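Structure (tokenized):
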């Protein structure tokens, strides 16, 4: 054998050994059929995500008693069948398979179904013994070279379970959409006794079992399950999936980095187990790559960004968000929100993209929301305002990308925002290079009207900024224009609330700025 063949042979041996290590013990303890006496395994519903031109991810997690140890399951593997078809009756184009899930993954099931026709709806379900899951509906993206007439999506974030009912998800579930884009604060680890209409189970999560229980609480909401079952989701995260205001390995609660990374490991693992992300995104220790890129034919390209895992610690006082004025450290060019590697990856992607709509989905508000005072601007250190050089690099990359429109989409701040993005914020002579839409929270409460008035008065590039209502943003992109409808309700604490259009905005193709629609 020459060296190349010897290496290939060794590679095969290693692969066989790895496979044995993965599946050997599971085979020794062969996957059990679903024992009916354990109850309904599909209490957490079904979901799909990551729509590609030829594949989609379908998800469930077996948990007959989501808040019992092990989800109410014995610590052994279980076999689950899945089916995906062109129609709701599962009579045409049916694909099926079996997935063996284990206690190590919380009995979660992630199947990336390959080889699908592009640009069409699909239906899916899971079967364990006699138990059949609800039917989910999903969709593949159009082929990369197709010319779809539109992309319709719901932009949502910040769904504190205790602070309201998911009227936004009830509406999203009923709408004709291509995808849901969720940009962070999927769970809240923390409790706020104010505005509490229902309660989290158990304590603030720190262990894997506790984060699993917290995710289960959210998934037990019928409106959230309905929104997952109705559309494919594309996700990124913010801070509350782990801990409020964390930055990389730095914890605001004062844990040392090693201890915090153990907590982050548990949080990322539970996040993976409960969301319809690709099986290849399974965390490795304390790391999970969530930033990604999607395409919608020739119409749009979407980058999902990770603004937490690689970020520099907040300025002037260590980890944690705080109101700052006169902090020179914010302007240190070494400070980053995305981290060097992700910044470069995004800038290269933007420069190479030929599509007319470039969507940047990230957790927070990119436009300035600091407040002018006689002694200088007061800013909140956890947002992009606390990382002005990183923001300039991102705006420079957008400006350099040339051709097409960039829309920055965000959440986190619990307010509907429409803004012009200038290459240099706060400089009226600087050109507008992009438009921004930030969705209000599904439930989480926002800033007072007094503070919002000061923010609006200090930032003329904010065309709209209202924190008094909860909801989501509906977006429709066509070759001609991007329309944004801020859906909202003032009554998140009333179950069955309906939403109204708070304001509508438009971005015309070929013009970077945003205007009232
Ligand atoms: Fe939030
Ligand atoms: Ca947040």
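Design, position by position:
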């Amino acid at each position: 054998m020459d060296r190349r063949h010897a290496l290939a042979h060794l590679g095969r041996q290693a692969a066989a050994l790895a496979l044995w290590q993965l599946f050997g013990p599971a085979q020794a303890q062969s996957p059990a059929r679903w024992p009916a006496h354990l109850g309904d395994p599909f209490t957490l519903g079904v979901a799909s995500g990551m729509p590609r031109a030829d594949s989609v991810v379908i998800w469930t997690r077996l948990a007959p008693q989501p808040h019992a140890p092990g989800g109410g399951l014995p610590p052994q593997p279980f076999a689950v069948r899945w089916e995906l078809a062109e129609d709701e009756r599962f009579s045409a184009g049916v694909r099926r398979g079996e997935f063996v899930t284990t206690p190590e993954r919380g009995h979660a099931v992630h199947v990336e179904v390959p080889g699908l026709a592009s640009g069409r709806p699909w239906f899916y379900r899971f079967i364990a013994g006699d138990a059949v899951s609800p039917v989910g509906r999903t969709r593949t993206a159009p082929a990369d070279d197709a010319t779809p007439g539109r992309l319709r999506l719901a932009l949502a974030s910040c769904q504190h379970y205790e602070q309201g009912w998911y009227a936004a998800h009830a509406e999203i579930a009923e709408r004709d959409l291509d995808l849901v884009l969720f940009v962070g604060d999927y769970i809240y680890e923390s409790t706020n006794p104010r505005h509490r209409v229902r309660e989290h189970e158990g304590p603030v999560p720190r262990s894997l079992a506790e984060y699993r229980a917290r995710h289960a609480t959210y998934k037990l909401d019928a409106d959230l399950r309905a929104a997952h079952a109705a559309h494919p989701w594309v996700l990124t995260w913010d801070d509350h999936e782990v801990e409020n205001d964390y930055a990389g390995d730095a914890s605001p609660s004062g844990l040392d980095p090693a201890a915090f990374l153990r907590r982050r490991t548990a949080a990322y693992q539970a996040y993976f187990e409960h969301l319809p992300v690709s099986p290849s995104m399974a965390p490795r220790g304390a790391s999970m790559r969530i930033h990604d890129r999607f395409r919608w034919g020739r119409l749009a390209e979407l980058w999902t960004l990770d603004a937490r895992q690689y970020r520099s610690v907040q300025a002037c006082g260590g980890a944690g968000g705080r109101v700052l004025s006169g902090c020179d450290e914010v302007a240190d060019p070494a400070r980053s929100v995305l981290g060097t590697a992700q910044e470069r990856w995004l800038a290269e992607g933007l420069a190479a993209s030929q599509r007319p709509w470039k969507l940047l989905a990230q957790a927070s508000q990119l436009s300035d929301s600091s407040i002018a005072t006689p002694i200088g601007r007061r800013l909140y250190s956890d947002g992009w305002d606390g990382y002005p050089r990183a923001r300039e690099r991102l705006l420079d990359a957008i400006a350099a990308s040339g051709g097409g429109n960039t829309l920055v989409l965000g959440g986190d701040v619990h307010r509907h925002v429409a803004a012009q993005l200038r290459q240099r914020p706060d400089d009226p002579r600087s050109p507008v290079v992009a438009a921004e839409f930030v969705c209000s929270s599904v439930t989480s409460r926002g800033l007072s009207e007094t503070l919002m008035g000061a923010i609006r008065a200090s930032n003329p590039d904010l065309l709209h900024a209202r924190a008094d209502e909860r909801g989501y943003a509906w977006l429709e992109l066509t070759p001609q224009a991007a329309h944004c409808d801020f859906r909202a309700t003032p009554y998140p604490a009333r179950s069955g609330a309906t939403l109204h259009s708070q304001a509508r905005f438009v971005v015309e193709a070929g013009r970077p700025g945003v205007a009232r629609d």
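Reviewer-requested clarification: The CA atoms of residues 33 and 333 lie 57 Å apart. The chain has eight helices and 25 strands.
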